[in-house]
Write a structure and sequence with these properties.
11 helices, 323 residues, carbohydrate binding, SBP_2_dom, 2 domains, Rossmann fold, Peripla_BP_I, alpha/beta, six-stranded parallel β-sheet
């Protein structure tokens, strides 16, 4: 009798072990350990630019509020001209099987082929901040929605406000962004249109490639060559700060009016202090969020119509900034 009990106990133990092993295997529905959540990559320009670090913060805060819905991978490049690195980031995100790429391209043309490859790999792509070139998109036979502001209208608003502080026939200079960037082209066009309507003379415009130090050097040269210049219009706030430093170096601080675009915190303080006249706020902390929201919609409904989304851009002056 004791032998039978011993044999039965061994059999029960063996059965329990089999069930335990089977149960552990059946509960592991994701043996690779990969999260079932969506993975969205945010690829920006230079994180050394406060505008893009603010954009990253806004996106990360949004992800934290929606942590059960998606994971966020944030990438940036060392400076605005490092286009090859941004292309590489797109390729890396394709290889890591992200569900979507939300990108602020450093170049409106060069990024399109890589983004076409992403779409062919099944990745949803949303373009923010700097619009991709329409002709190149057509050549590559790809549709990518743009989520962002009307840069020309924003720049014209800033330029018109500046013109109200000048008189007919006054001279100004313009600091452009990267010339292959659509947003840089549009901001230049907006500034020029505002000056033309106000009959203000644009005596020079050069690209400082969005960078403060380069803007300082170029603006110093402009002020030396054109001492009659009454104002400098900068296509972003980093360049506006460079222009302020140039005016100070030329002994014309407070005399040469400066405007920018982006509404970074350093410029907000400069506007309060009267060192910069105005800027445009394209709500950088929300711009990537708008793009992520659009990407989530396209993932949920792959057959949804691909449409652009225009986001706000507002004039910022000393009067509009709260004390």
């Amino acid at each position: 009798m004791s032998f039978g009990i011993h044999q039965m106990n061994r059999a029960l133990f063996g059965l329990s072990l089999i069930l335990l092993l089977f149960g552990c295997h059946s509960e592991s529905s994701n043996p690779t350990g990969k999260s079932d959540k969506l993975r969205i990559a945010l690829i920006m320009k230079s994180l050394a630019n406060e505008f893009f670090s603010t954009m990253a913060d806004g996106a990360e805060n949004y992800q934290a509020e929606n942590a059960d819905q998606f994971d966020l991978i944030v990438n940036g490049i060392k400076d605005e001209r490092d286009i090859s690195r941004q292309v590489s980031l797109v390729e890396e995100m394709i290889a890591s099987n992200v569900d979507a790429i939300v990108i602020a391209p450093a170049d409106s043309k060069a990024l399109v082929p890589a983004l076409r490859r992403a779409i062919k790999a099944g990745v949803v792509v949303v373009n923010i901040d700097n619009r991709l070139d329409a002709d190149v998109l057509a050549t590559e036979e790809v549709e990518i929605p743009f989520v962002g502001p009307d840069n020309k209208a924003g720049a014209k608003q800033v330029g018109s406000y500046l013109a109200g502080k000048l008189v007919t026939g006054d001279s100004v200079c313009i600091l452009e962004g990267v010339r292959t960037s659509f947003n840089g082209q549009q901001r230049l066009a907006g500034f020029q249109e505002a000056m033309e309507e106000a009959q203000i003379k644009v005596v020079g415009h050069q690209s400082a490639e969005w960078e403060m130090s380069k803007a300082n050097t170029i603006a110093s040269s402009m002020l030396s060559e054109h001492p009659e210049v009454k104002a400098i219009l900068a296509a972003n706030d980093s360049m506006a700060l460079g222009a302020v430093a140039a005016a100070k170096g030329a002994g014309r601080e407070g005399e040469v009016l400066v405007v920018g675009f982006d509404n970074i915190s350093a410029v907000q303080q400069a506007i309060k202090d009267g060192k910069i006249l105005a800027t445009a706020d394209q709500h950088g902390d929300q711009l990537a969020v708008y793009g992520i929201e659009n990407a989530l919609k396209l993932i949920e409904d792959p057959d949804a119509k691909i449409e652009d989304v225009e986001t706000p851009v507002d004039l910022v002056t000393q009067e509009s900034i709260s004390p």
